[in-house]
């Protein structure tokens, strides 16, 4: 109980984000009006953005908050049109790539270089191959280019691979599951059950991992 109370008192934005994510996951399976479900879907990333904004007042924390706000808008926009959601997520990936480039590791082990290369090369290829419709495959493959760059940048950054790196890979998996619905997993219950948890957990790990690293490196800017 004391641990839970401390979490609520010190990390209210995180607790609210988790609650909103669980609420959306439940409500989407009910007859809850779709129009009102849209802001519920956008709330988890908006609350993570608020967490980033309030936990550290550095340029990088503000940058992260802005990127998460873009993800929140993308989560809502995609309910109306895939194109609008895709453009906003494209912008999110570019924003995160810029952030990771400012925090690149000086050196990478050969195995890490290989994994970064695999993310960059295989993510767009798999995204292209998953949809049955080749024209759709071209679109998903193009979208996956910044997605791959985001994940590779996270893995090659100085941020924790166990949080930020894995979070970025989970983001990739969630998007590949979306593309798989257009092909081999069409009609399968797996994507519907796994996409949202994988996406939210990935974003949660990214946000908390980056903020923890920033607070450790620059305590003077802690809130």
UniProtKB/TrEMBL annotation:
Coiled-coil intervals, chain numbering: none
Gene Ontology MF terms: hydrolase activity
Broad class of where this protein is predominantly found: membrane
Cell compartment(s), UniProt: Membrane
Alphabetic keyword roster: Membrane, Transmembrane, Transmembrane helix
Transmembrane segments: 12-29, 84-101, 113-130, 136-157, 164-182, 194-214
GO cellular component: a single term: membrane
Protein name: YhhN-like protein
Domain of life: Bacteria
InterPro entries, per database record: TMEM86B-like
Statement: the UniProt record of this protein carries the keyword Transmembrane helix: yes
Membrane topology listed for this record: Multi-pass membrane protein
Similarity comment: Belongs to the TMEM86 family.
